[in-house]
């Protein structure tokens, strides 16, 4: 499992999806794009935090993925310049840990801009939105085909909008991608829109193992039943590393009160607000409360305070709903989590918890 540097570049977006809230956790076209210098400062601080955490990892786990997104990050006027700057700022750390940059995007860049971005980013997570106009959906397909043609690493996530017409478009796209040899994965929606009927589940059997959906409750939302990885990757649970599935089940209280290591695998930075969180959804802090862990002015001191601790701390979950962060190792019992983290952390170092 890699460390995720989760960088929200801008809140502006050229879509206005009903399942994406307006505000710091979604999109907000009333907010200006953050200026270049503010973006650069955030990247510098996120790299420094990542360096501190990865110093405790075994060599095989000294990997970080920088997720670059928004809003829609490709519409920031300085995005190409900023992507190039992320390479420059990484140079002091290149012998310490490995970095891959990925853009989570709706893929609606012009052909020229898309080709330039592909030269400077190692991979893409493409999210298909059925609610968009035909022009933008065709642009998405064109840019997706280009990724395939140049062999650029990518994932394709289809946001499964259960409304009748949008659902039909989602399923149609999944079948189109399959014919193109593109691995597209359905993603159940969080929030009140994520209620799926039996006919929905039947359609999904072509793309998700029916065993994972066998006990699905069609009367309640997806987020209270299970969670898939935002990037569509398979996960294991109950330490059964031989069995992987897209959806990890959970009870009505999520992982409330569990011991969790999300802070050892995630850092979320929102350039628009200038705030840092453990990750974009859970927002759990070391004191067991929720909220930002630091801002652009205090992050340097926060990193120093962590460096002075004898070991990497873990969290106690304060949320009933676990969305981003589900994949982070967690357990009801702290001693079990400590054992699990020995897989990732270097036992020769003091900070191995």
The number of helical elements comes to: 9
| Top-tier CATH class | Alpha Beta
* Strand and helix order: EHEHEHEHEHEHHEEEEEEHEEH
Q: What is the number of domains? A: 1
CATH topology: TIM Barrel
Cross-sheet strand order for the largest sheet: 6-5-4-3-2-1-10-11-12
Q: What is the rounded distance between the termini?
A: 16 Å
What structural class is derived from the secondary structure elements?
alpha/beta
CATH architecture annotation name? Alpha-Beta Barrel
Task: Give the proportion of residues in helices.
Answer: 25-40%
Low-pLDDT windows of residues: none
Describe it for me?
It is a single chain. By secondary structure, the protein is of the alpha/beta class. It has one domain (3-250, 265-310): Alpha-Beta Barrel (TIM Barrel), CATH 3.20.20. Helices cover 29% and strands 18% of the residues. It contains nine helices and 14 strands. A nine-stranded mixed sheet has the order 6-5-4-3-2-1-10-11-12, covered by helices on one side. Strands 13-9-14 form a three-stranded antiparallel sheet, with helices on one face. Strands 7-8 form a two-stranded antiparallel ribbon. Helix 1 runs parallel beside helix 2 (79-90). The longest helix has 19 residues, at 36-54.
């Amino acid at each position: 499992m890699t460390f995720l540097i989760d960088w929200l570049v801008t809140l502006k977006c050229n879509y206005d999806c009903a399942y994406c809230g307006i505000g710091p956790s979604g999109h907000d076209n009333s907010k200006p794009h953050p200026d270049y210098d503010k973006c650069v400062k955030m990247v510098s601080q996120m790299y420094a935090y990542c360096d501190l955490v990865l110093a405790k990892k075994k060599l095989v786990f000294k990997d970080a993925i920088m997720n670059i997104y928004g809003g829609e990050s490709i519409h920031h006027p300085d995005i190409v310049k900023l992507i190039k700057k992320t390479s420059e700022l990484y140079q002091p750390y290149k012998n310490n840990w490995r970095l891959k940059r990925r853009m989570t995007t709706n893929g609606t860049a012009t052909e020229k801009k898309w080709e330039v971005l592909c030269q400077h980013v190692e991979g893409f997570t493409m999210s298909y939105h059925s609610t968009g106009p035909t022009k933008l959906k065709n642009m998405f397909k064109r840019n997706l085909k280009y990724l395939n043609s140049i062999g650029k690493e990518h994932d394709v996530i289809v946001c499964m909008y259960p409304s009748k017409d949008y659902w039909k478009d989602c399923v149609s796209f999944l079948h189109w991608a399959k014919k193109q040899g593109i691995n597209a994965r359905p993603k159940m929606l969080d929030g009140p829109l994520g209620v799926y009927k039996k006919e929905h589940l039947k359609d999904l059997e072509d793309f998700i193992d029916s065993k994972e959906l066998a006990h699905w409750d069609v009367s309640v939302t997806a987020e209270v039943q299970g969670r898939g990885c935002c990037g569509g990757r398979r996960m294991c649970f109950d330490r059964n590393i031989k069995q992987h599935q897209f959806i990890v089940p959970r009870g009505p209280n999520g992982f409330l009160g569990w011991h969790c290591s999300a802070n050892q695998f995630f850092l979320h930075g929102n350039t628009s607000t200038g705030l840092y969180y453990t990750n974009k959804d859970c927002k759990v802090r070391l004191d067991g409360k929720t909220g930002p862990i630091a801002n652009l002015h205090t992050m340097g001191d926060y990193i120093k305070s962590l460096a002075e601790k004898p070991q990497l701390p873990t969290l106690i979950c304060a949320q009933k709903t676990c969305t981003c962060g589900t994949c982070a190792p967690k357990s009801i019992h702290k001693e079990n989590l400590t054992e699990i983290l020995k897989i990732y952390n270097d036992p020769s170092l003091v900070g191995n918890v």
